[in-house]
């Protein structure tokens, strides 16, 4: 209250008129009910309903974290409130909760979630999917949040939709064999209007007391790539657009906060952004110190102009830039890909010269582009979560970028 009153005083507004006018920022609210036991106050109450509050006051309240909504100017010139869709600098991935490559016990999974919740600078955002462990990641996330007594109002969950749980009738799941460990279910893909709604409902059921507020279609690029011929491709494109029609209806009904898209092939993001009013887009392996072709940077600019926030993921090219032999999820070797390893050697040398870790350079490279507002990082080890958060806030010397450019390592 003290901070609220201070902002009101700064802008010459009475707290009473600010409280009343806040109601009218929401276009669904058409009237307020006020009462008084003193006849002398009735006129004042009427004046409150017609008071003018400076636009800058709402901006100040938002900046100080005293209100949680964004205040925007509508086409008719009126100020209106919208639920904030701002993303934090780091989004926490949850694939490890679905037993990706290694089976984690419930205590470790809960510790991973706890580290993320406690380390987040604001509302923690978790990125999950029905495909992650055939729904196990969603289940584990919901169970961990509940055990930690995290209120549903204090967390945001992103669910990438398109895969539904199915009975496991083979020794291992039929999707991504070898990737997921000791699963009890299989998963099947269903990208369509009805299918995506079923995925949404199933995801919320798996989350238990929680629900996804951030939604998208999972890997639409892979779905389109599987087309057998042009006719099949046309049908699949319509399937994707129908799925997005369902998601937009969820957003318009207030059931979800935002709708986005994520893909490794950014041309599919480009296609969808031409047909769907997106809130965000997630790039993967496309904007890193090694990979940032002009067409991708042009798409970043296009999305920025459309008001679409970009989340960058796979910023280490699947670990290769840090020292792994996996480049974009494919095994590579010095004798078969000498140019990749030479680039990495030179990159690491520049990082060492400026006293910067390659990981923080890769992460901070993302934030050189104003369209990118967030990065997605995940870990199977609770001890690394804090380090991931620090990467998002690391400082990299300006001279390092100059050196990388001079050596032709970045363009």
Written overview of the protein:
By secondary structure, the chain is of the alpha/beta class. Helices cover 41% and strands 16% of the residues. It has helices spanning 2-10, 15-23, 42-49, 55-63, 106-119, 136-147, 193-207, 220-225, 230-252, 266-273, 294-305, 338-353, 358-366, 385-392, 398-406; strands at 69-73, 79-83, 90-93, 125-129, 156-161, 163-167, 185-189, 214-217, 258-263, 280-284, 309-313, 326-327, 330-331, 372-377. It has an eight-stranded parallel β-barrel, surrounded by five helices. It has a two-stranded antiparallel ribbon with strand order 1-2. Strand 9 (258-263), helix 10 and strand 10 form a beta-alpha-beta unit. Helix 5 (106-119) crosses helix 6 (136-147) and helix 6 runs parallel beside helix 7. The longest helix is centred in the middle third of the chain and has 23 residues, at 230-252. The model has no long low-confidence stretch (mean pLDDT 93).
Short description:
The protein has 411 residues and is α/β, with parallel strands linked by helices. The protein is built from 15 helices and 14 strands.
Strand order of the largest sheet: 3-4-5-8-9-10-11-14
Largest sheet: 8 strands, parallel, barrel
- Runs in which pLDDT lies below 50 for 5 or more consecutive residues are none
Q: Report the C-alpha radius of gyration, rounded.
A: 24 Å
Which geometry do the CA atoms define?
globular
Mean of residue pLDDT values = 93
Helix and strand element order: HHHHEEEHEHEEEHEHHEHEHEEEHHEHH
The percent range for strand residues is: 15-25%
Number of strands: 14
Classify the helix fraction into a percent range. 40-55%
Termini gap: 50 Å
Number of H- or I-type helical stretches: 15
Structural class: alpha/beta
């Amino acid at each position: 209250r003290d901070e609220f009153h201070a902002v009101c005083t700064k802008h010459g507004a009475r707290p009473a008129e600010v409280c009343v006018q806040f109601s009218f920022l929401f276009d669904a609210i058409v009237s307020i009910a006020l009462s008084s036991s003193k006849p002398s106050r009735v006129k004042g109450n009427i004046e409150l309903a017609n008071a003018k509050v400076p636009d800058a006051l709402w901006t100040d309240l938002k900046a100080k974290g005293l209100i949680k909504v964004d205040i925007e100017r509508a086409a008719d010139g009126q100020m209106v409130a919208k639920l904030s869709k701002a993303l934090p600098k780091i989004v926490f991935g949850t694939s490890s909760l679905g037993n990706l490559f290694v089976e984690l016990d419930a205590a470790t999974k809960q510790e991973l979630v706890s580290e993320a919740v406690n380390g987040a600078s604001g509302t923690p955002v978790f990125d999950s999917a029905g495909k992650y462990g055939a729904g196990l990641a969603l289940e584990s996330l919901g169970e961990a949040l509940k055990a930690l007594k995290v209120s549903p109002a204090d967390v945001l969950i992103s669910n990438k939709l398109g895969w539904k749980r199915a009975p496991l009738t083979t020794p291992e799941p039929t999707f991504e064999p070898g990737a997921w460990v000791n699963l009890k279910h299989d998963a099947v893909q269903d990208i369509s209007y009805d299918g995506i709604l079923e995925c949404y409902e199933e995801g919320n059921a798996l989350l238990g007391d929680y629900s996804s507020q951030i939604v998208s279609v999972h890997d639409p690029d892979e779905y389109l790539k599987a087309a057998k011929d042009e006719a099949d491709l046309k049908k699949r494109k319509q399937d994707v657009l129908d799925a997005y029609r369902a998601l937009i209806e969820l957003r318009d009904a207030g059931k979800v906060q935002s709708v986005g898209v994520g893909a490794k092939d950014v041309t599919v993001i480009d296609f969808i952004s031409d047909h769907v009013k997106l809130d965000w887009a997630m790039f993967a392996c496309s904007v890193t110190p090694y990979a940032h072709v002009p067409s991708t940077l042009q798409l970043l600019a296009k999305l920025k102009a459309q008001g679409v926030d970009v989340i960058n993921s796979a910023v280490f090219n699947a670990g290769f830039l840090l020292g792994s032999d996996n480049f974009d999820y494919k095994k590579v070797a010095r004798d078969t890909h000498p140019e990749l390893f030479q680039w990495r050697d030179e990159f690491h040398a520049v990082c060492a010269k400026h006293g910067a870790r390659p990981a923080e350079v890769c992460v901070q490279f993302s934030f050189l582009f104003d369209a990118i507002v967030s990065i997605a990082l995940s870990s199977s080890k609770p001890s690394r979560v804090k380090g991931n958060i620090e990467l998002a806030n690391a400082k990299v010397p300006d001279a390092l970028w100059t050196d990388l450019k001079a050596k032709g390592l970045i363009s």
